[in-house]
Specification:
InterPro entries: AB_hydrolase_fold, PGAP1-ab_dom-like. One of its GO terms (molecular function) is hydrolase activity, acting on ester bonds. The protein is α/β, with parallel strands linked by helices and 539 residues long. It is built from 15 helices and 13 strands. A hairpin with a 4-residue loop joins strand 3 and strand 4. It is globular, with a radius of gyration of 31 Å.
């Protein structure tokens, strides 16, 4: 089985009222034609049934069940002496019924094509995005309120639905797959997380926490967890510049190519691909582009959590990054690493910077845009699977946020993203794709889908190297597919954000720096030896 991602688009640059009304008129006209052809198909089917009923009720005659060409039925009707023999003609029922059914099928196909065109137009131009967002927020509000008042009851109900979804979908898939327990209740993820956080704050007698209870809980949790993290992991961040033995992060010219470079940087450390680069975990990339006007544009690529014991991208750092306090976010080791790497690479205060991050890397990107405004000119961030709805990103920074509906991580902020001209959200829905299409991995680690499924049969973009069974959709390849489908739709909002991103790095790639970080209790002799390389520092 193959998997595809169908994307919906919210926020971003919008059309004028007149343009929107024009698109709505076309979409409604297409839907009306789809309904008309559907009605015509039903009419042809009814005609076929009526013809069949007439054939059954007609006088038993071989002609009505044969070719329908007519025959002389003189035997038993007229004698040989009767000069005026009776001739019996019959309708070609079989042929007529067959033609009626063919016409019905053709009308159904035309109706489906018109409906597909209408829905594609609606999806591409976000014609009903405001209504969809309002409905989503209402569901979140109801779920959050219920979870705040009675979290145990909501958890039991959610558990029942999860078990039912796991059982039903596992049977359909032919094997046990616990991921279905999560994606069945994905519609309630954000609301439940928000309600649970609100309930915890009420238990702690903190009733006034603003509109972001999850971030308020993260702030309180970070106060308690940070000292233990520093005790066990250390609070000395060591960073050094390292060299890649192979070409890992190449020149980026679009959001899509930047995401592919991020995937290459991130997945080698997980063993998914083998590029023989020599790079290890907790490594980010910083690229400098020389633009036509002689100025520099920068691109920073930040992978997600790696979970290593001495990594600044461990699990503990996520809590500080999700805090509603700027000073706590700044103390997160992963943000400290990115901050220092950008400084070491030579990024000037006025140089335009774009940051692409996945999971924790996306939270780092949002925190950098919110909290490092006085040091860097971060003008665009691209996040994939990152809970950043409540981060105070300034209005002048463009945000392209990509999420998958049934992933848990992106829902941990307990809120939907803002829908503004500068904040674009692409939400992907994963479904089974028709037919069978394999994918192959090239020697350089690139994913190449092989031919097999006609594009006309797809409703989304194929996921590269996806397994037969449904898996966790937090992998970056699902966000890549979501962005690919959003781009293919011809969305004005996506096009504007893509152009803004490209303008930042519109030039020749001059250099790529790789920076690796480690957490230490202190600075022992081994660490000093490890740091004995050019462009190294301690923060």
């Amino acid at each position: 089985m193959n998997w595809q991602v169908t994307s919906s688009i919210y926020g971003g640059q919008s059309y004028s009222t007149a343009q929107r009304e024009a698109y709505e008129t076309v979409a409604n006209a297409l839907l009306e034609q789809a309904q008309a052809f559907s009605a015509l198909s039903a009419s042809w089917q009814t005609t076929a049934l009526q013809l069949n009923r007439h054939r059954v009720s007609a006088t038993m005659c071989s002609a009505s069940y044969g070719s329908g060409t007519g025959s002389n039925m003189s035997s038993g009707i007229a004698s040989a002496n009767n000069a005026n023999a009776v001739q019996h003609d019959s309708l070609p029922y079989s042929q007529l019924i067959e033609q009626c059914n063919e016409h019905a099928q053709q009308c159904t196909r035309v109706s489906e094509e018109f409906a597909t065109m209408a829905h594609s137009l609606i999806r591409a131009h976000s014609l009903y995005a405001e209504a969809e967002l309002a409905a989503l927020r209402n569901v979140n509000a109801i779920t959050s309120k219920a979870a705040t008042i009675a979290p145990s009851h909501v958890a039991v109900l959610g558990g029942y639905l999860a078990v039912d979804g796991y059982t039903t979908k596992s049977k359909q898939e032919g094997a046990s797959n616990f991921i279905h327990a999560s994606d069945t209740v994905s519609w309630a993820h954000e609301g439940f997380v928000s309600g649970l956080a609100s309930h915890l704050l009420l238990l702690m007698r903190i009733p006034r926490y603003g509109s972001a209870p999850v971030n308020a809980v993260a702030s309180i949790t970070a106060m308690l967890s940070a000292p233990f993290k520093n005790l066990t992991q250390g609070n000395t961040l060591c960073i050094r510049e390292v060299q890649a033995q192979t070409d890992v992060v190449r020149s980026s010219h679009s959001v899509a190519s930047g995401m592919e470079n991020l995937r290459r940087l991130a997945e080698e450390r997980l063993g998914t691909i083998e590029l023989h680069s020599g790079l290890s975990y907790a490594t980010i990339a910083v690229q400098r582009y020389r633009r036509a006007d002689g100025t520099d544009g920068w691109l920073v690529l930040v992978p997600g959590t790696d979970g290593q014991e001495d990594s600044p991208f461990g699990w503990e750092q996520n809590v500080e990054l999700m805090s509603d306090k700027s000073w706590q976010r700044k103390r997160a080791d992963s943000l400290r690493l990115v901050n220092m790497a950008m400084s070491k690479a030579g990024i000037g205060k006025d140089d335009e910077v774009a940051i692409i991050g996945h999971s924790q890397g996306g939270i780092v990107a949002a925190a950098a845009a919110a909290d490092l405004q006085d040091r860097y000119n971060i003008t665009h961030v691209v996040t994939a699977g990152s809970p950043i709805a409540n981060h105070p990103i300034p209005e002048q920074t463009w945000v392209t946020s990509i999420e998958i509906e049934d992933e848990v991580v992106a829902s941990l902020d307990g809120a939907t993203n803002p829908a503004t001209p500068q904040w674009l959200t692409i939400r992907g829905q994963v479904s089974a794709a028709p037919g069978t299409t394999a994918t192959s991995t090239e020697d350089d680690g690139a994913y190449i889908p092989e031919a097999g499924i006609p594009q006309s049969e797809l409703t989304g973009a194929l996921v590269a190297n996806a397994p037969k069974q449904k898996e966790i959709t937090h992998w970056l390849k699902y966000h890549q597919a979501a962005y690919a489908h959003a781009s293919d739709q011809g969305s004005y909002a996506v096009t504007q954000h893509e152009q803004h991103f490209q303008e930042i790095i519109d030039g020749e790639l001059l250099e790529t720096h790789y920076y690796e970080g480690r957490m230490l209790q202190s600075t022992p002799p081994e660490a000093l030896q490890w740091l004995a390389q050019p462009k190294v520092g301690i923060l």
